[in-house]
Amino acid sequence: MKAMVLAAGRGARLSPLTDVCPKPLMEVGGQTLLERILCGLEAAGFTRIVVNVSWLGEQIIEVLRQRTSVAEIVISDERDERLETGGGICKALPHLGSGAFAVVNADVLSDYSWPRLAARIAQWSSDELAHLVLVPNPPHNPGGDFGLHQGRLLSEPAYTFAGISVLSAGLFAGQRPGEVFALAPLLRDAVRQQRASAELHTGYWNDVGTRDRLDAARAWADGAASPG
To answer: Does this model's pTM top 0.90?
Structure first.
């Protein structure tokens, strides 16, 4: 069971906080965003987790070096590159294998059930290229990204991509490590081939990209941690 956590982003909208601390290391409810995701994936049975780093990556590397981990943690170092999401995942494929693996954005705070990703991988079909978790459109993305009908991913935007997914290495066929490319065009190609599925998560979800959303995430985490 393998997963990748995307932790290479600049987090410019959280500046000046992210001028000195990478966004994945922002604390929410007494834990960093990254630690929350790692703990959730480990508890769900993931045994190898790749973390890509770029902006202030040395801080993330040091935190992971000192961490007592249940899973094997592998660093994919992009500090000298700007590969975008697709290129970053492609570079890490040697650590992720030839099958299906989970991918999670490091700035996601959610009550989504990580064991669902593990179960999705266990049931993976060789015909599938991608499975996306979608959420109702937040105010900052009212137009949405993808649609959903009877478990299939659609290109017509109706919901927002949550930054939580299961992808197949086959999605990256024809791409070369070191190339700079986005993930979205590959996902849309998978939709056109009818090889992409999706699910809708209606619980809590927050992509912590601004100070207001960071404050909201902290308020939610504090409330979720309180008795009753």
So the answer is: yes
